[in-house]
Each structure stands twice: as C-alpha cells, then as structure tokens.
Write a structure and sequence with these properties.
Number of helices: 10
Helix content: 25-40%
Strand content: 15-25%
Distance between the termini: 45 Å
Bound molecules: adenosine monophosphate
CATH architecture of the largest domain: 3-Layer(aba) Sandwich
Oligomer: single chain
Structural class: alpha/beta
Number of strands: 9
CATH superfamily of the largest domain: HUPs
CATH topology of the largest domain: Rossmann fold
Largest sheet: 6 strands, parallel
Length: 283
C-alpha cells in the first residue's frame, strides 16, 4: 500500500501510470471506512490495474451547523482495514492544500442540488461536485466508483461528468447493509443502542413502499409516500426529513408511479440524519 499526501505527487504518479497504460480505478471517500467502502474498492480492483482510494473529509460540503467537527476520523483504522485487501494507493490530502486561502473557483450543480438532501443541506452538493472535480483532475482515473447509498449524489456526479466532459466512466455499486437492513454509513457510529435499533425503520419503510408499488394496488405516489411516512412515524425515535418517490434519472417527483422509480428517504434518529433509497422496477 502506498500513501500519498501531496497533490503534486499524486498527479505525477497518475501521469506515470497512464504512460504505462495502466487503468486507474478511483474510490473517493471521507474515511471511517466500512464494508460499503471496501465493496467499492473490490469492484474497482476487479477491473483496474491500480485502485486509488482518497480519504479526505471535505470541509466545503458541510453546512455551518453540521457535523464537520465530529465527523469520525481514524486514518490508522482505515489503513488497517485497507491492508486486508489487495494493495491500493491511498491519497490523503490536507484541507490547506486542497483549499488554500486563495481558493475561489467552484462547481455549482444547479437545480439538482436544491432538492431532496439539497433542500435541508443548502450548498452541500456544490461542495461535493467541487471536491470530486478536483479529485478527478488530481487522480485522472479511467473509472470512478460511487455507492447507490447516496443516490442523489450518483445522479449529480453523472451530470457533472457529462456537463464538464470528464473522460471518466462512473460505476454505481449496490448499497451494503447490516443484517437488519440498515445501510452502512460512517455516521452510524453516532447512534446509541436504542437509536441503532430504531434506525432499522428506514429499510423496513423502503421495503414496505416497494411492496405497495409491486403489488400493483397503489399507483399514486402521494398515497405510497403517505403509507411509508406512517410506518416511519410509528417509530418514536424517528423524525422524517423527507420521503420522496422520484424518477431515477432526473430525480423529478413522480405523481403516478410508472416504473422504474427510486424511493428516497431521509430520517433523523436522535440527532443523526440517515438517508437511504431503493430502486423499484415493476415487472
Ligand atoms: P463517504 O465516505 O460516506 O463519503 O462515502 C464514500 C463512498 O462510499 C460514496 O460513493 C458512498 O456512496 C459509498 N458508500 C457509503 N456507504 C455505502 C454503503 N453502505 N454501500 C455502498 N456504498 C457506500
């Protein structure tokens, strides 16, 4: 495993690898690695000669009242976890090099960034798009891997690549879940035992919504959303941020459910905001 901290060193290595006709797979993360992250890395290692994993907590994607200061950080644990895999290149830049005082250029994602998670996290997706564009320019990957867990992010990254002509393939990997269905997330470490138990409601609600849609009895999105909402609010520790049924390409709200659709939810359990989604395709 090679660890690179400096942007210039990463660019030089990438230039050399490309000159040697090596294919570069790239997995951007904010660290606190779990099985979800490792699954993206394994997907990359299946088809690329080299996999670069970035570990960088991107300050500009956090709002002023969000958890930037508390965000879990464990580089040593992360490197241990990575050592169980085939070797990767770890890129861990520091914020002062990524965003020096003179930094002033950023990517704005437009209306896609103002809906769903963007409605309660203003500016979040501009911050994500800006760091991903920077990382793409530094790592210069052939293939980049993102998790379906962050569904809106995957749609926005695909659009970023198309709109700004990055010559990169995006591969979306399935959400890795705990035994009770909770999507793995670095933020799950915030949950106490009671909250952890309650957080299984997210996946239960998604599966319930899927069942309503696939049974064919319910085609009006507002009715399905209402039923999902009822199931979530029956859990006393859960507070709904949003429940939406959207077109999986445009993220436009569906009125009548014509397949496929994505059910996207954000739920606050205690003080922790969790998101999840399910793609539903009726036969
Ligand atoms: P993060 O470190 O949370 O920014 O996530 C880095 C990447 O890992 C993103 O592409 C996420 O969508 C992906 N990811 C996070 N959790 C999971 C999961 N449970 N299953 C699959 N991918 C995930």
């Amino acid at each position: 495993m090679q660890i690179i901290k400096n942007i210039k060193d990463m660019q030089a290595l990438s230039r050399r690898l490309r000159a040697e006709n090596k294919t570069i797979g790239f997995v951007p993360t904010m660290g606190a690695l779990h099985e979800g992250h490792l699954s993206l890395i394994r997907h990359s290692q299946n088809i690329n000669s080299i996999t670069v994993v970035s570990i960088f907590i991107n300050p500009i994607q956090f709002g002023p009242n969000e958890d930037l200061k508390q965000y879990p950080q464990d580089l040593e644990g992360d490197l241990n976890r990575l050592s169980s895999l085939n070797p990767v290149i770890v890129f861990t830049p520091v914020a002062s090099e990524m965003y020096p005082e003179s930094f002033s250029t950023s990517v704005t994602v437009g209306s896609l960034g103002g809906i769903l998670c963007g409605a309660s996290r203003p500016g979040h997706f501009n911050g994500v798009a800006t760091v991903v564009a920077k990382l793409f320019n530094i790592v210069r990957p052939d293939n980049a891997y993102f998790g379906q867990k962050d569904f809106q992010q995957t749609v926005i990254i695909k659009k970023l690549i198309k709109d700004l002509n990055f010559d990169i393939n995006v591969i979306i990997c399935p959400t890795v879940r705990e035994l009770d269905g909770l999507a793995m997330s670095s933020r799950n470490t915030y949950l106490n035992n009671e909250e952890r138990r309650a957080s299984a409601v997210l996946y239960r609600a998604l599966k319930f919504g899927e069942e309503l849609i696939l049974s064919g009895g319910m085609v009006e999105a507002p009715s399905v959303k209402g039923q999902i909402g009822k199931l979530i609010t029956a859990e006393p520790l859960a507070k709904i941020d949003y429940v939406e049924i959207v077109d999986p390409h445009s993220l436009a709200k569906a009125d009548k459910i014509a397949s496929p659709v994505a059910i996207c939810i954000a739920v606050i359990i205690g003080k922790t905001r969790l998101i999840d989604n399910l793609l539903v395709e009726s036969k």
